[in-house]
Amino acid sequence: MTDPTLPCASSAAPRPPPPVLSTLDERVAAYSCNTLPADYSFDPTLSIDDNYMVLTLIYARLSTSKRGNMACIIVDPCSTRAPSAAALHDILITALNDGEPPVKRRRASSPSSSSSASPDPFPNYPGRVLAHSNNTPEPHTVPPSSSDAVGLDGVVKPARTGKKAQQSPFLARASNFPELHAEARSLCLAARAGIPTLGATAYVSFPPCQACLPLLVAAGVTRLVYRQRMAAQGAVELCRREGVECVEVLDKDKDEDIKARVGRWWKERGEGRDETRTRLDRWWKEQERRIMGPPEVVSVDCASGAAAGAGQGSVAPREGAKQEEAVVGTTGPAASAK
């Protein structure tokens, strides 16, 4: 399948960029984490694939991951020619029965009929965006201490040192939490909404990993567009065997042009490192409040009293220890011998 030209897919005129918001808080709030921006204008001088790749990298910046930014956008390239609910049901039953004709009674309704009737949240984008996501951390509670912790896989992960040692244990381990990959989460969101992905195209910022690729293939995605080369031989063979078309952006000049367009798009909206860092920090602090609960508030009087008590208690334990030694000495075997 070749990349369709932009004029055939969308006749909407490019929209001017929105005015730059005046305050940092306004610019941070203008774009939510893990939410696909709806104000990108497709450039008619680029192909649809290149435009969607620009949008994918724009979207990747809104990832909340501390490990690296990934994004996936699943698109129905020809939503007007999508199969009907009845035809889709027959196709799925045939696939499940290894090519045998359908044996189950056709349902009166299916999720695809309701999803096709729902309004398109991105009407200015060619085709129809079915689902989208970034790689999303799945944080959990952590021990309220700075000591080493044992992860879900049983591996002891040492506490952070240096600059991050001043953070809370939750925020210090932000990069160690498990993550749901962008491709897997996109498919989950589509399944939850009852949106079929059969025959869809998935735009991914990098080649899908060996865990996500089988999910995309099993979900019926027939076309993958991503940057760089898919190196895993098993992944290449899987796509070839299942008839999945792989479009790789390998030209260095094209890749640099795509990244430059992404940078200009964010710059037009006043987005810089401060905005991105502030948005990310606020998301993680909100997750900490949601998972760990609100922080304890200690008054100044209580804090000073605790400090004074700690100062007085520095001598008391030693005296108590001596008394305990004396008691042990009078009741032990040596004392009874006397």
UniProtKB/TrEMBL annotation:
<dbReference type="InterPro" id="IPR016193">
    <property type="entry name" value="Cytidine_deaminase-like"/>
</dbReference>
<dbReference type="InterPro" id="IPR002125">
    <property type="entry name" value="CMP_dCMP_dom"/>
</dbReference>
<protein>
    <recommendedName>
        <fullName>CMP/dCMP-type deaminase domain-containing protein</fullName>
    </recommendedName>
</protein>
<dbReference type="InterPro" id="IPR058535">
    <property type="entry name" value="MafB19-deam"/>
</dbReference>
<dbReference type="GO" id="GO:0052717">
    <property type="term" value="F:tRNA-specific adenosine-34 deaminase activity"/>
</dbReference>
<dbReference type="Pfam" id="PF14437">
    <property type="entry name" value="MafB19-deam"/>
</dbReference>
<feature type="region of interest" description="Disordered">
    <location>
        <begin position="99"/>
        <end position="152"/>
    </location>
</feature>
<feature type="region of interest" description="Disordered">
    <location>
        <begin position="303"/>
        <end position="338"/>
    </location>
</feature>
<feature type="domain" description="CMP/dCMP-type deaminase">
    <location>
        <begin position="120"/>
        <end position="237"/>
    </location>
</feature>
<feature type="compositionally biased region" description="Polar residues">
    <location>
        <begin position="132"/>
        <end position="148"/>
    </location>
</feature>
<dbReference type="GO" id="GO:0002100">
    <property type="term" value="P:tRNA wobble adenosine to inosine editing"/>
</dbReference>
<feature type="compositionally biased region" description="Low complexity">
    <location>
        <begin position="109"/>
        <end position="119"/>
    </location>
</feature>
<feature type="compositionally biased region" description="Low complexity">
    <location>
        <begin position="303"/>
        <end position="316"/>
    </location>
</feature>
